[in-house]
């Protein structure tokens, strides 16, 4: 298994963890498609093999970088029959495992390719049509079968196209003559197919208006889902193959076309001004959702978002610089050294956030276009990203929170230092007073005494003071000395007592005598 290969698998639980089982390579899982579009020429079309022969791939000649080379292509890489010398647009497909390359998503350049192939184009009317096959009625060939996928028009063929005039090319196949490379003769008649019934009335009134008007201000919000339409939330990549053509002088306009890869199917979907807030140019690389009509199953692009800034390299537009001089509710003015003051629609915004008063005086890049013979700026983009106000407030709150936490931490450290300092001072004081007399008497013991001094504190009055140094008197009488050790006489200093204390002492002595 090579990194990058897309697979299908079944997830299961094993010992409190998720494990992928039944892993299989998905269809096309080893293929990587380069989104860049290359111009190429078909040098070898795919020819139907004779019985017993193998089917050989076709070849296109293309310049990739500075190298001109031939790339093979298979039948599945193009929905239509390709002829020799066809002018086509292709993507480059690389197999991740084998590293082989081939052309894919091949789309002829209409109508330029008809002049290169020298094919004979004929006209006819669609006689019958279903999902898998159709029949064209022609004056020269009568009834000719065709595949509905052989479609050079911008919109897919449906049963509503019966009796529609088309032009085509005739080729010989095993079953006889077949019509290929079909294209509607009157493409504008089918513009309303891409819209719902309610929207088609608006398009009709717009097409009947003979006055050329500038497009209305486009909303930059998401596309509203009309009745009987379902929004597919999945994102698809696409390339703008046809820009919107505005109605002019009574001639109805064309919708835009996006060539998109919708799963395994490569097809064109339509879009109009409702589906994108900015002007799209040819070859714009975009991301889209799909709006699907539940009744007719028709699809159109919605919520179109250009891939900024990569799309600028494909459109080959000229980007210019200017400064926003004023902003209104719907329009603004850009001041440019080359063009002076140019108006712009405020919805023509390629930046991440909407334009506001803070953008006045800020530099932007833009593209110029002509609307009703007047220059207008489109596809505006800030040169320096403006930070969202909500993000600024959030950052400010985070800074305040960090500052408070830092102050709390600093105060806590100071308290801890002061506490440690006090503990050190107390420890030093205790160490200095360890061998000294203290009023509490915790460290005082009577020498050679077995008595412990109680730590409990009592209140009392000193009646007599005793000297700390005991004085002994040597007996003069040797006889007394021989009999035994003489009693120590201690001289006690007597303090004079007042009458009350004397009475208390006398009462105490009387009680002791009576008790004895």
TrEMBL record:
Biased composition (Polar residues): 208-225
Region (Disordered): 199-226, 396-423, 492-516
Compositionally biased intervals (Basic and acidic residues): 503-516
Domain of life per record: Eukaryota
Protein name as it appears in the record: Uncharacterized protein
Organism for this UniProt entry: Nothobranchius kadleci
Primary gene name: CU571336.1
């Amino acid at each position: 298994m090579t990194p990058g290969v897309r697979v299908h698998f079944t997830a299961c639980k094993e010992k409190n963890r998720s494990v992928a089982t039944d892993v299989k390579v998905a269809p096309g899982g080893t293929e990587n498609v380069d989104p860049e579009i290359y111009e190429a020429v078909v040098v070898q079309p795919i020819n139907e093999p004779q019985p017993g022969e193998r089917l050989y791939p076709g070849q296109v000649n293309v310049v990739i970088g500075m190298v001109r080379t031939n790339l093979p292509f298979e039948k599945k890489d193009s929905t239509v029959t390709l002829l020799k010398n066809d002018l086509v647009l292709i993507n480059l497909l690389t197999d991740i495992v084998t590293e082989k390359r081939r052309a894919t998503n091949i789309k002829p350049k209409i109508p330029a390719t008809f002049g290169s192939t020298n094919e004979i184009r004929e006209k006819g009317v669609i006689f019958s049509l279903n999902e898998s096959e159709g029949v064209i009625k022609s004056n020269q060939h009568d009834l000719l079968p065709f595949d509905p996928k052989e479609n050079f028009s911008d919109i897919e063929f449906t049963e509503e196209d019966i009796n529609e005039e088309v032009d085509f090319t005739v080729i010989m196949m095993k079953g006889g003559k077949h019509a290929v490379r079909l294209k509607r003769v009157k493409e504008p008649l089918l513009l309303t197919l891409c819209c719902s019934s309610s929207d088609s009335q608006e398009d009709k009134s717009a097409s009947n208006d003979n006055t050329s008007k500038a497009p209305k201000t486009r909303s930059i919000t998401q596309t509203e889902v009309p009745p009987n339409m379902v929004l597919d939330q999945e994102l698809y990549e696409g390339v703008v193959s046809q820009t919107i053509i505005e109605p002019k002088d009574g001639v109805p306009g064309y919708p835009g076309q996006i060539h998109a890869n919708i799963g395994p199917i490569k097809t064109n979907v339509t879009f109009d001004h409702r589906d994108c807030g900015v002007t799209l140019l040819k070859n714009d690389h975009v991301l889209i959702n799909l709006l699907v009509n539940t009744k007719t199953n028709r699809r159109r692009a919605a919520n179109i978002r250009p891939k900024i800034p990569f799309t600028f390299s494909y459109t080959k537009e000229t980007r210019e610089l200017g400064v926003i001089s004023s902003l209104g509710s719907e329009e603004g003015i850009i001041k440019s050294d080359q063009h002076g003051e140019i108006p712009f629609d405020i919805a023509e915004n390629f930046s991440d956030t909407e334009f506001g008063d803070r953008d006045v005086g800020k530099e932007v890049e833009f593209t110029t276009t002509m609307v009703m013979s007047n220059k207008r700026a489109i596809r505006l983009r800030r040169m320096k990203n403006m930070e969202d106000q909500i993000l600024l407030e959030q950052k400010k709150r985070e800074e305040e929170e960090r500052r408070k936490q830092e102050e709390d931490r600093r105060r806590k450290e100071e308290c801890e230092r002061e506490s440690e300092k006090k503990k050190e001072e107390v420890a030093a004081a205790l160490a200095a007073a360890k061998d000294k007399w203290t009023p509490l008497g915790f460290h005082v013991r009577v020498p050679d005494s077995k008595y412990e001094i109680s730590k409990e504190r009592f209140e009392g009055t000193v009646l007599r003071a005793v000297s700390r140094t005991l004085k002994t008197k040597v007996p003069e009488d040797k006889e007394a000395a021989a009999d035994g050790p003489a009693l120590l006489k201690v001289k006690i200093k007597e303090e004079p007592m007042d009458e009350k204390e004397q009475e208390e002492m006398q009462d105490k002595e009387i009680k002791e005598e009576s008790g004895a």
